[in-house]
Amino acid sequence: MTQADPADQVANAQVLGREFATAIVVFHEAVGRLLGLSAVERKCLDLLQRLGPVTAGAVGEHTGLTTGAVTRMLDRLAKAGYVRRAPDPHDRRKVVVHLLPNERMDALMAMAFGPFVDDLGTIMTHYDEKETRAILDWASRTTGALITSTRRISGLDA
Fold this sequence. Notes:
Layout: H1 6-34, H2 39-51, E1 54-55, H3 56-63, H4 67-79, E2 83-87, E3 95-99, H5 103-124, H6 129-156
Antiparallel strand pairs: 1-3, 2-3
């Protein structure tokens, strides 16, 4: 058995990484369209679902978006009826963003993500515990690199 050329492995990994990233972006754009939102706006709602009420600054920290971009996005989400802003009960100088209950959104998310989550469960049965830890480590490190890169790029348009 011959060893694969490292340069070919890197090139193949780069192509696969680009295809993977494209698939993620296109999927989230399609999910956002279900709600009349962009992919970034939809992912902001996901962030609020996971974190609960947070400041706009926290949204920026978790996304890597600039303060201005977060403010404009939250304005659009509030106008569309997905979020509301309220004074922070612990520090009245701050504003906290709350996700509003939305049965339509919940139903569409279940329709979009239910089969996907099932597919992921099936995919993960192909890996043992060590491989699963490696996959999760890769996903965690890649997420951090993406957030760092988003912050760097966002600083370029300031």
